[in-house]
UniProtKB/TrEMBL annotation:
Gene3D superfamilies xref list: von Willebrand factor, type A domain (3.40.50.410)
Domain of life: Bacteria
Transmembrane feature ranges: 52-77
Protein name in the entry: VWFA domain-containing protein
Domain VWFA: start-end pairs: 92-278
Higher taxonomy: Bacteria, Pseudomonadati, Verrucomicrobiota, Methylacidiphilae, Methylacidiphilales
Pfam assignment, any one: VWA_2
CDD domains documented for this protein: vWFA
Keyword vocabulary terms for this entry: Membrane, Transmembrane, Transmembrane helix
């Protein structure tokens, strides 16, 4: 409708100009002066005036209708660009938990309750069917407690069984595994969590495996330069729908793998990162993550659970990103073009005087 309005609006200008010229030429042809023409026009009967108006302006009206209908045909059939929400993608969330010797007792129990609260929040989220959860434990080394798995599906029975197994698995989380050794190697835990995200579904990709191992060897020797960090997304892909949540009760000097460097890699790949710490968060780490919270007390279980629930609620939401797509309306131009030729033909025949009363 907007196209028709503008066509008629712009078509009105030549219509008025044409009318002025027609009136001027008619006045010169019929009578020696305009005043005499006006007097003669007033003396005409209403019927003659009406027929004169129709004979003069109907061809112009037909021409405008033809242009309008042809323009409408093109406007309706042309591609239209519009913003459209992207399909909801899976959310991949990995928890990296410090289960070193210093967390034994109350610390590990409070952390276990916070992780279960995190899971419970995800399970009650409307978007739970699009969420995958993974859990990594670390002390002297890192261990994957839970690979990235879907926490729910459309089947109610299957979801209940899966929920029960997840709760049992996360409830078994503790510091009693001697195979992980002593220490607090946060960098190793972060690397194992990031590997779950980056290599998910591509474990057998030899090229990705080679690049991943080469990157780790580089980080073990030295830190990456800024240009090298910026090139990681081209080599390892983008992971904007993934989240890494890390918790530790302390830091050690001389890490095998720099936790700040791993956070920088995650940030370069688009992974959102949260870092929760009992101690104050060093500046180098605070600048490498999206959100860092220090001075937490594992004794205050309410605060820890609230933080984990807040993160779960925020990150389970589907992405609101949009893309610009081109949509072509599948309407035929035949009707509109037919009307255009019809009005042109009518105007031509009328102008020739065939239908003039």
């Amino acid at each position: 409708m907007k196209a028709i309005f503008w066509v008629f609006l712009y078509g009105l200008l030549p219509f008025l100009a044409f009318s002025a010229l027609r009136w001027r030429s008619k006045a010169r042809q019929w009578l020696p002066g305009f005043e005499v023409f006006v007097k003669a026009w007033k003396n005409l009967s209403f019927g003659k005036r009406f027929r004169l108006w129709i004979a003069t302006y109907f061809p112009v009206l037909c021409l405008l209708l033809a242009i309008a209908s042809w323009s409408c045909g093109l406007w309706i059939a042309k591609p239209v660009a519009r913003w459209k929400p992207l399909p909801v993608k899976e959310r991949r969330i990995v928890l990296v938990n410090d289960l070193s010797a210093s967390m034994q007792g109350t610390g590990e129990e409070r952390l276990r309750q916070a992780v279960l609260a995190f899971l419970n929040t995800l399970l009650h989220d409307p978007n739970r069917e699009n969420v995958r959860l993974g859990v990594v434990e670390f002390s002297g080394t890192a261990k994957v407690l839970l690979p990235l798995v879907k926490i729910a599906d459309s089947s109610g029975i299957t979801s209940e069984i899966r929920k029960k197994r997840l709760i049992e698995l996360l409830s078994s989380m503790g510091t009693s595994d001697p195979a992980m050794g002593d220490g607090t190697e946060l960098g190793e835990g972060l690397w194992a969590g990031l590997e779950l995200i980056v290599r998910y579904g591509r474990r057998n990709d030899p090229l990705l495996s080679e690049r991943w191992q080469r990157l780790k060897q580089t980080l073990l020797r030295s830190s990456l330069s800024q240009p090298a960090v910026e090139q990681l997304r081209d080599q390892l892909g983008t992971h904007a729908d993934s989240v890494l949540v890390a918790f530790t009760d302390g830091f050690v000097e001389g890490e095998k793998l720099s936790s700040a460097a791993v956070f920088s890699v995650a940030k370069a790949l688009g992974v959102r990162t949260y870092f929760l710490s009992v101690e104050a968060v060093p500046d180098v780490l605070a600048h490498s993550v999206d959100r860092a919270i220090g001075h937490l007390s594992v004794e205050n279980v309410a605060t820890l659970e609230t933080l984990y629930r807040e993160i779960a609620s925020r990150e389970a939401r589907p992405s609101s990103r949009r893309s610009l797509e081109t949509d072509v309306t599948q309407r035929k131009q035949a009707v509109w073009l037919g009307l255009a030729f019809f009005f042109l033909g009518m105007g031509y025949r009328w102008r020739k005087g065939v239908y003039v009363p």
